[in-house]
Structure formats: structure tokens, C-alpha cells
Write a structure and sequence with these properties.
Blueprint (H helix, E strand, L loop, with lengths): L7 H10 L5 H7 L14 H10 L17 E7 L9 E5 L14 H6 L2 E7 L15 E3 L3 H19 L14 E5 L8 E4 L5 E4 L2 E5 L1 H12 L1
Helix pairs in contact: 2-3
The protein binds a DNA duplex (12 and 12 nucleotides) through helix 3, strand 2 and strand 5.
DNA sequence: TGCTGATCATGC
DNA sequence: GCATGATCAGCA
């Protein structure tokens, strides 16, 4: 287990040092076995990079590197450098009181500064052979901020009106609300249109691939 | 074949 | 169940 990086530069330096390496290489540095596939190890890549960069292990809220205000996100990319999967941001509370402004939301707190680490993710590449790409620091620009804010406000508005069950993943320009749970039988509380408490499948916010694709394109020109 | 809804592992 | 880390898988 590595110590936490003391500055953004130190974090960036560590991330840059592993660019170009395979997952097997980094796994060896961390004395970690490499799974054959990710079917039962969906978070393995993210946790490996966390360990390598010195993020605090375990489940805790807020950013990965709280002292320096950075969230770490690995992102699987294809041969063209485009994202293969959406990016999970955080759970969405479905019960009042609802956060009043996007600026105060957990979503914004998490993604106001992200260290993106692209990693080859095509399923025909064995996990051990997948290479780590060039990391980069990202903060939403004015346009990105507004798009995220609009989506967040629209989704929270519907939930506050008791209409969470009408929200599908098709909602949102750049950010969507989707199930996030052990399975479809998991339940959490929300309100219906009359304010009555009902049980629904838990939901989380995800960044759409079209949005993260633009972020990657901007970073790499 | 891209995308949405579903799912997996783990700690507490 | 919630929160961490995400990817799977089947259907339109």
C-alpha cells in the first residue's frame, strides 16, 4: 500500500509513470493476481490503479484524494480511444430533502476535478495484456458545467415530484440516471406523486460515453 | 452493435 | 442497504 500523494503534481507524476504499462505489470508491482476476465471482478482495474496511486482503500464517501481534491476514474477505451462504458459518478438520494443546487450536489463535488486514466478495455484483449494510457486532469469547463447542471436539475426535479419511475437512461444530455444495485430486487425509499413513501430500485448518476468521449478528445486533441 | 437495465465483489 | 470500484449481457 502506497502513501497518499501530497500534491496534485505527485499524483500526476505517479499516474504518468505507469502509462504504457500492462495491467499485469502493475498487478505484479502490487502483488495482486490478475483475473482472467472481469465478469466477477468488475471493479478490479479501478482498485488496482487506486492502490498503485496511493488512494485510501475501502469504501468512503467523497473524493479519492480528499486532501488534494481529486477524484480518480479509470475509463475503458477501445482501439480508437473512445470510451467503451459509461462512468458511474455516485448514488442518487431519492428521498427529501433534496439538494437545492447543483453546486452543492455530491455529483459536482465528485467530478469538479477528475484524474482520468484511460485503459484498454476491448474484451478481446486479455485483462493482463491491457495497457494503461496517458492520464490527464480534467475540470469541467463552463459549457460542460452547464450541461451537467441542466441534467442534474432536470433529474432532481422529476424525483422531487415523485416521478423517479418515469426516468429512463434516455434522459439527460450528458448525464443519466440508471439502476445501481446488487440486482433488480434491491429496494430503497422514494416518494410517489402524492408524497407517499414507496420502494424502488436504487439509482445512480452516470456520465454518458458521448460526453466522456468529448472529454478525451479535448484532452488529446 | 450501441445502449439500457441488470449485475458482481466487498466492507460495514 | 449504501457506498466503493465498475462491467455484463441481451434486446431494439
Amino acid at each position: 500500500m502506497k502513501s497518499a500523494p501530497k500534491s496534485i503534481n505527485e499524483l500526476l507524476s505517479r499516474a504518468t509513470d505507469i502509462a504504457g504499462l500492462t495491467l499485469a505489470h502493475v498487478a505484479e508491482l502490487n502483488h495482486a493476481p490478475v483475473p482472467k476476465d472481469l465478469k466477477r471482478d468488475k471493479g478490479w482495474v479501478g482498485q488496482l490503479i487506486e492502490a498503485e496511486l496511493g488512494a485510501t482503500a475501502g469504501s468512503k464517501a467523497e473524493q479519492d484524494f480528499q486532501e488534494i481534491g481529486v477524484e480518480l476514474k479509470t475509463i475503458p477505451i477501445n482501439q480508437n480511444g473512445k470510451p467503451i462504458e459509461t462512468t458511474f459518478v455516485t448514488f442518487c438520494s431519492l428521498m427529501p430533502p433534496f439538494t437545492a443546487s447543483f453546486e452543492d450536489s455530491v455529483v459536482f463535488k465528485k467530478i469538479q476535478r477528475v484524474l482520468w486514466v484511460p485503459i484498454e478495455g476491448d474484451r478481446d484483449i486479455p485483462v493482463r495484456d491491457r495497457r494503461i494510457g496517458t492520464p490527464f486532469l480534467w475540470q469541467p469547463d463552463q459549457n460542460e458545467f452547464l450541461l451537467l447542471k441542466q441534467d442534474w436539475e432536470e433529474i432532481i426535479e422529476l424525483i422531487s415530484l415523485g416521478k423517479v419511475e418515469t426516468i429512463t437512461a434516455r434522459y439527460g444530455e450528458v448525464m443519466q440516471l440508471r439502476p445501481k444495485a446488487a440486482n433488480s430486487k434491491a429496494l430503497t425509499e422514494t416518494i410517489d406523486e402524492f408524497g407517499k413513501i414507496i420502494q424502488v430500485n436504487p439509482r445512480g448518476f452516470y456520465l454518458k460515453t458521448s460526453f466522456t468521449s468529448r472529454i478525451l478528445a479535448k484532452a488529446f486533441g
